[in-house]
Amino acid sequence: MPTEAEMLAAPASEYLNARQLAFFRARLCDERDALLGSAEQTTRHLQEFESTPDPSDRASLEEDHTLELRVRDRERKLLHKIDQAIARIDNGTFGWCEESGEPIGIARLIARPTAVFTVEAQERHESRSKRLGG
Length: 134
Prior knowledge:
Layout: H1 4-9, H2 18-47, H3 55-91, H4 106-111, H5 119-131
Helix pairs in contact: 2-3
């Protein structure tokens, strides 16, 4: 498996060769496994919820659980993006911008392996979303 430094130093002609794709698949699978483990912990923690007679203690516990559920919802969305990225590795579209068809770039993929746009296309996409209100 190549290191990040080796991947960054590789010539453009080697963009997303089999070793690099294996690196990204392993990274995505590790991240998915960590998120799934975290979700299991949350489920167990929420099942252990003990009602307390003190209203301020109960409110504090409920607030903690609400925050935990928000974090898990973000993680659930990230899990979906990870699964989509793995599917792109399988179908040969991983690492290529969905808008321009250009290479996303190794550095960007190392930082964000679920990226589907080049930096420039991402900026255009976000600008359009802001103009359209969401």
